[in-house]
Design a protein that fits this description.
Two copies of one chain form a homodimer. With about 350 residues, chain A is α/β, with parallel strands linked by helices. Chain A folds into two domains: about 5-165 and about 305-330, Rossmann fold (3-Layer(aba) Sandwich); about 165-300, Rossmann fold, CATH 3.40.50. The first copy, chain A, is about 40% helix and about 15% strand. Chain A has 14 helices and twelve strands. The first copy, chain A, has helices at about 5-15, 15-25, 30-45, 50-55, 75-90, 105-115, 130-135, 155, 165-180, 200-210, 235-245, 260-270, 290-295, 305-320; strands spanning about 65-70, 95-100, 120-125, 140-145, 160-165, 185-190, 220-225, 255, 280-285, 300, 330, 335. In chain A, the strands form three sheets. Chain A has a six-stranded parallel β-sheet with strand order 2-1-3-4-5-11, with helices on both faces. In chain A, strands 7-6-8-9 form a four-stranded parallel β-sheet, sandwiched between helices. In chain A, α8 links the parallel β4 and β5 (about 160-165). Chains A and B meet through α4, α5, β2, α6 and α11 of A and α4, α5, β2, α6 and α11 of B. Chain A binds a DNA duplex (16 and 16 nucleotides) through α1, α2 and α4.
Chain lengths: ~350, ~350
DNA sequence: TTGTACGCGTTATCAT
DNA sequence: ATGATAACGCGTACAA
């Protein structure tokens, strides 16, 4: 009942361990009947090679690590699917790893690197925050996908790549779109000032739009989500919007920095007996599938996740094969107009 | 630039490897200044212990493995959060692993078991399909969470535990609820006959409801999702509903075996210019958060994921500490009535 | 074609 | 408090 090893299999079959090893790794140079015998023994005993021991010895291992901060976030789902396929197409294996809220992504990456003999690493989510220092210790190329390059500093530019949209710019466009509909009293729901969060970037874009028209931003129209719960959750959008509605501030449009927040916002508005978009226009950011199915359809900035995912993998392999140095690729977002925004009614 | 090991650190500090190892693992029996020196060297070199080598030698390691089939499925998100916290409370570490669509969950489990010296395994999603044979080779307790125990056979009863709702029974209740609203022409959107899928189970519950009233099931009202895309996706619900609407069959209610399908269905109905629930009632199954935020709110069977998650971890530790043998726990679902269902209008 | 023996980086055991 | 050394399970030269 104790753990069975390659040695046991070898003994059972009366062969050397190397022969078993050859069978395990699909080497051709082994007798047909010997192979049969070994295969049978493996099946019978339910023997499974110890991956730790393998990785310890192995030198090749064509693996790409994908580390996700907040695997719980449905935003990444479509990306994972595509990345998985693309990596597969290159005959590499994918190692998907969850980074806990309390874990340091760089630490996990470091650990995974020599544990699995990775050839490259992709980060999904996670801010490239304080960890950027540790990233230097990684010996394989690193790409942050979906992380705006605008948040990284000069030192970091050469240490890793990024593939994303320009969060700040797109947020400005979206705000301008609302302005062009006649809206002036535009509230924004965003994340509390974390130095490099998308919430912060998109808020900056919002400010840019106002600045460009020389309109001062009404700071009372900036609403921060509840820090005590999942920041970008539907529930948080709901509660924050309730705060907006009970604030007595005049608001004809709400810019939610995330689609999920927007859905919560729309529910709150409906529950308050107001109409969308007639009474209040709502827009989100990200272009999640659910927004297209919501009622009303959500106006949002659609991130081209297909392209971003594909380009991420492509760039990574360029990096691995030294065909390129670190780059910072920006894809344009697409304003996807739904039914949740409308021209402001003149009073 | 080559990989730095514990030996290098030991040499740098002029100490033995065991001393370094002690520092690494937080053993108390090491001199203060020696420890300082070693810590400094570690920080300076960016040395990270090789986890494979560790796991190879380690005997203890209090780890629980959580294997998710379809990590892309937002249904599991709230479960993961809770399970993570509960495991943490027991001072165990959580190893979260994604099981690819093509991988065999049992194989992954086997591999992970001796790779990480797991003490127990939790499966989320994944059908306990053909793999049940291999499960015997696992030496640590296994629990399937969210998998109905009704699909397992006598042999399996003692080989692993399950914690779930009774999919079939709950589906019957939901169907009865629709019947009690006066609906007779109730279509169902489900997954094509996979032996143990929840889609199949819930369809059986649907049949049960009809059988109990001695009403024959109109087989033409059973619609199967498109197999060529994600089975339980919103998009699939949308398309399948379009097929329903263009089928010329009279339908006053649609039972979608999943909330996500239901949301797609509602969008399709709205797009066809029909009203929900006046023209067609829609209900889902699962009780996902998004259903409560949708417009109209979705009627569904709410699975008590909190309880299921907590009980799963509790049972697992009972199993680990041999306080219990394998059990099959059923939690009742809760009929959550939203605005998407209504009494059938008499013709 | 097959077997032997060494090394991968770490922890545990036993000395010191 | 610290050091030397034997496993841990496997892959792979190298020998046979």
């Amino acid at each position: 009942m104790s753990k069975i090893t390659i040695v046991d299999i070898a003994n059972m079959c009366g062969v050397g361990v190397s022969t078993v090893s050859r069978v395990l790794n699909g080497h051709p140079d082994v007798g047909a009947k010997t192979r049969e015998r070994i295969m049978a023994a493996i099946k019978e005993t339910g023997y499974v090679p110890n991956d730790s021991a393998r990785n310890l010895k192995r030198t090749d291992a064509k693996c790409i690590g994908v580390l996700i901060k907040g695997i719980t976030n449905p935003f990444f789902s479509p990306m994972i699917d595509i990345i998985e396929k693309e990596i597969d197409r290159q005959k590499y294996a994918l190692v998907l790893r969850h980074v806990g809220a309390d874990e340091d992504e760089a630490d996990v990456a470091l650990e995974l690197e020599n544990e699995k003999r990775l050839r490259g690493i992709i980060f999904l989510g996670g801010g490239a925050e304080q960890s950027s220092g540790k990233l230097k210790n990684l010996k394989v190329p690193v790409i942050f996908s979906t992380i705006s390059s605008s948040v990284i500093n000069e030192e970091e530019v050469k240490e890793f790549s990024t593939v994303s949209v320009d969060d700040r710019l797109e947020a400005k466009h979206l705000t301008q779109y609302l302005m062009n509909l006649g809206h002036k009293d535009i509230a924004i729901i965003t994340e509390a000032m974390l130095r490099r969060s998308v919430g912060h970037l998109r808020l900056e874009g919002y400010r840019d739009a106002f600045a460009e028209r020389n309109i001062p931003v009404d700071e009372d129209l900036i609403f921060y989500v509840d820090q005590n719960m999942e920041h970008f959750s539907t529930e948080n959008g709901y509660r924050t919007t309730q705060r907006i509605l009970s604030s007595n501030k005049k608001v004809t449009a709400i810019f939610c920095v995330t689609d999920l927040l927007a859905i919560g916002a729309m529910r709150a508005i409906a529950d308050a007996g107001l109409r969308i978009p007639e009474d209040i226009s709502v827009c989100g950011f990200d272009g999640m599938e659910i927004g297209r199915f919501y009622n009303p359809r959500l106006t949002t900035i659609k991130q081209p996740l297909d392209q971003i995912s594909r380009e991420t993998v492509k760039l990574l392999f360029d990096l691995i094969e030294s065909r390129s140095s670190h780059r910072h690729i920006i894809f344009p977002g697409e304003l996807s107009i739904g039914e949740s925004t409308i021209k402001r009614y003149e009073d």
